[in-house]
Amino acid sequence: MFERSIQSLLETSLRYFPAVAVLGPRQVGKTTLVKTLLQHSTREVIYLDLEYFADQNRLSQPDLFFQANQDKIVVLDEIQRMPQLFPLLRSLIDQHRTPGRFVLLGSASPDLLKNSSETLAGRIVYLELAPLHLLEIQAQYGYRDHWLRGGFPDALQVPNEHIWQLWMDSFIQTYVQRDLPDLGLSAPASTVRNLLTMLAGIQGGQLNYSDLARSLDLSVITVQHYISFLENAYLIRRLPPFFVNIGKRLVKAPKVFVRDSGLAHRLLGLDNFNALSGSASLGGSWEGYVVQQVVSRLAQSVIPYYYRTQNGAELDLILVKGGKPVIALEIRYSNAPKLTRGNTQAIMDLGLEQTLVVTPEADGYWLRKDVRVCSIQNVWAVLEEQGVLMS
Question: From CA 373, how far away is CA 375, in angstroms rounded?
Answer without folding.
Answer: 7
